[in-house]
Fold each of these.
Amino acid sequence: MKRYLGLLMAVVLMLSPVTMWADTYTAGTYTGEAQGHNGKLKVEVTFSDGAITAIELGEHTESPGIADPAFERVPQAILEHQSLAVDTVANATVTSKAIIEAVADAVTKAGGDAEALRNKEVAQAQAGEAQEMTADIVVMGGGAAGLAAAVTAAEAGASVILIEKTPAYGGNTILSGGYMQAAEPEYAKTVEMTDGQRSEVERYIALEPKGERMAAWQATVREQYDAHVKAGNTWLFDSPELHMIQTYVGGDYVGNPELIEMMCKGDVDSMHWLADNGFNWKNSALAIVGSIWMRCHISADYASGQGFIAIISNMIKDKNLDVTTLFEVAGTKLITDDTGRVTGLIAQGSDGTPYTLNANKAVILASGGFGANVDMRVKYNTMWPSLDASVPTTNAASITGDGILMAQEVGANLIDMDQIQLLPIADPVTGRTNNVIGEGTNMYVNQLGKRFVNESERRDVLAKAILEQPGSYCYIISTFWNSRMDADYKNNYHLTLDEMLASGAVFEGKTLEELAEKMGVPADTFVETVNNFNKYAAESNDPEFGRMVFPANAALEMEGPFYACKRAPAVHHTMGGIEVNVHNQVLNTQGEVIPGLYAAGEVTGGFHGSNRLGGNALAEIVTTGRNAGSHAAQ
Ligand SMILES: Cc1cc2nc3c(=O)[nH]c(=O)nc-3n(C[C@H](O)[C@H](O)[C@H](O)COP(=O)(O)OP(=O)(O)OC[C@H]3O[C@@H](n4cnc5c(N)ncnc54)[C@H](O)[C@@H]3O)c2cc1C
């Protein structure tokens, strides 16, 4: 198994007299190990008789970018305090805990008392003096929406302060699968159009329109599709207008058509903007779970959502933009003047230092949704039996709805707050998404070895169907050919097959019967289910569950090895949030603009209606971040 060899760090401590007598060890270097986020994590820990003197990071498979702040801070803190009761790092807590546990393992091997070190109190950092700073624009949140807003505003000549409450850029964006929808015609040419897809286009054109905008989109698609057919094109038809219809219909007509139009026109441009700045797109158009159409694009270089963060944040440095980032500073309250205009925000550093950040032009809220805020989930949930703490989430811990609450305090209108998406195919225990092996549109079976749903359906339909199965989980079935693995046997998060198998949620069988045994499902039923599915895929017609759209590789190659990935729904996306207009200006409860206040990304509501299509979030956040940044800078 290929692993990252993280010999990056060797932190050596000058011993103080206090630490000298506190602990006793058998001097030497010991290897400690513990379970990290993606697999085993090792550390080499050096001890003198009385202290831990160095911690060197060994082999691990943690995700670059996401885990880095934990690698930088946790060993340093353990050395400084000679304690294992050190703080974990926000959004990298699993990695932080793994480092602590691996050092504890080494402490035990060195004859030390790990339990005593776990209980050894660490003095809290002291708050610094109050800080006051001023810029044209203050952005709150360092995911892709906030970064795109900051960069675009700075490119337009504005000075920008960006605050991020964790020690690193990323948010949910860096954790994401990295699939972005955009109706880019060149990439659609990589896909041969099937009969099922042809009838889907006709079905969308023939739907009863809800409003003038939808009728206009349908008329445009009619013309575009006729021209596509007349030209004899055999590749997949796609256009921004088809994307608009699918987004609006896919969200039960709850989304705002004006915003949907802005997003679906703008996302192709956002794709080009990223490419112009070094984002290397794979030449493909993919379907992911609940994307409805083969319109998702992904980086050829970076794992998961890391490329979005790396490329946009690098622009700050590469273009020498006037953007000052304050990490570990959380916005808490918006400042308004007598007229109600937003003129800045109050924030607090993680050490308690108070900040007053004045904005000459505007504040842009880009702090993400509220998927990790259990109280808000429970308060607004009407769609699901329960969204309490027992339901896992795919979200980063810092995604707690702060911007939504701050905007509400100054009179912003909140919309669609009850529209909370469950990702149907998360890890049943942890909610993680990075150990998925089969495509989300592959065949699903339950513990009885039977299919139970049209797998190309919307996410809410899939999640509800899975929750009704025995144990409320299912298995995604694949071979190599319809898995997410590339030629190196790595998935889109760059996890290897071995790492996925080690996660406990992925099973491998040389034959279908062997796989059935590992899953504990009846082999006869399972094999019959696979045979039926293959037949339906070949005919693009599934009489059992009405599935019409099958990617070319949907059928299971009958040669093993076969894979099953155990999956269950987890809280994923909050479609509701702050109401905005087409410039991403925040609206109050009377529908009027709140001067000086913008919102971009998942903190907003109105784009996805009752159900976000897979790949539409990255499309929205980059587009709305740029939109807010350029308008606010004017
Ligand atoms: C596991 C996972 C997989 C996904 N996969 C996909 C996919 O493949 N395609 C797709 O389209 N969508 C996907 N999504 C959804 C998508 O990633 C998110 O909707 C999107 O990244 C949100 O971007 P954002 O910039 O609005 O917020 P985020 O990226 O979440 O960033 C918000 C930032 O604000 C910071 N913050 C919060 N509160 C404060 C505060 N008070 N002060 C300062 N900073 C604050 C947070 O720490 C965070 O860094 C996925 C989501 C998850 C969780």
Amino acid sequence: MKIAIMGAGLSGLACALTLEKNGLTPTILDNRRCAGDRFVNGEILLPMLEESFSDPLIQLSEAYGIYLQPTNNITALTLHSENKTAQLTGQLGFINLRGRVENSFESQLARQLKTKILFNSPYDYTDILKEFTHIVLAVGDFRYTEEIQRVKSSLAVTLKGAIVAGNFNQREVAAWLDNTIAPKGYCYLIPLSGQEANITLAYPEYPEAQGLSQNKLWDKFFERVCKDTQQDLRVTDQFEIHQYRMGISAIPRIGNTFFVGNCLGTMMPALGFGQLPSMLSGIYAAQDLLGQSSYQKTAKSIYQSYNHSLTLRKFLESLDNAKLDTLIDLVGTPLANRLLNNRRISLLKIISRLLAPLFG
Ligand SMILES: Cc1cc2nc3c(=O)[nH]c(=O)nc-3n(C[C@H](O)[C@H](O)[C@H](O)COP(=O)(O)OP(=O)(O)OC[C@H]3O[C@@H](n4cnc5c(N)ncnc54)[C@H](O)[C@@H]3O)c2cc1C
């Protein structure tokens, strides 16, 4: 078996680690200069919005021997709509770094690997097909999959983010659901430390959003974050992504090519969470290559999460700002807080089941 993993991000590295732990050595190719060679940003793991509602870091270490250290736990999530604010508290999840820093998730995974990653790879999928018996496609870009197989495309998103200097509670993340700032999208703040945070504006590139000025929306968002955090924030770095595609591949595997991470469709359409399903898809593909299970079967849970998340997106998109105010009021009730902290139920599953008759 000659296995090539194309892409040394979350899914590719999780796949490589699983193969390596079980005695197979893949060839890992990445077109960048080192692991995480991209802008730095903060991301979160939020179990309440995952299909299997357990602690993702315990799950990865106990079940798969993959160890990841977050930068912090999340103990408060503040949600803002145009006129309302609510806060959820409890052990809600984890904050982690991505990109070109030593403790980003991809850097941590790369350090656990013994196999050398071949960086600056000039090879495309067709070149690799000629040389290897099995390929794991893990380039983190759904457009790649769209060229190779039939897909269900759901949306493309524009993201504009910044690293800002200020004073932050390191365990509190915040999100804004306000159509005047992020039409059918949302904005968030993730603290990276007590003095730095990542703020991001994300909204779908629907035809009705074409005439909008991203800079004007950004200015509005920035003003709102400064107001809600009661400080004058200073931008120290910025990034922009256009046409970030979210969709799901028709099948997880064609012949001996395995689609993992964003190439499978692990970017969950409701709020863009994709880290855990990406790593799981890489692990599941490796387990198939090891003869332990069938990727066609194990990937089913990811397809299910995707569909649940899409139902949630359709619901959120149907809400105008007045309804979003009502939603935030509801989320702020003690009952909602109790439900969201209940580790025995997956909120994503429940919400999508309730909403499926209307939005599924
Ligand atoms: C701004 C932003 C914020 C996000 N926030 C969150 C969050 O808070 N929580 C969450 O769960 N998810 C979040 N996500 C989603 C999450 O980051 C992705 O779902 C996840 O990284 C996908 O993993 P992957 O392995 O598919 O791709 P990646 O981790 O991106 O890895 C892809 C790798 O492939 C390499 N590559 C690309 N092209 C080639 C090529 N031609 N040949 C070889 N190698 C190639 C790249 O260099 C990279 O190393 C966010 C995404 C973005 C963009």
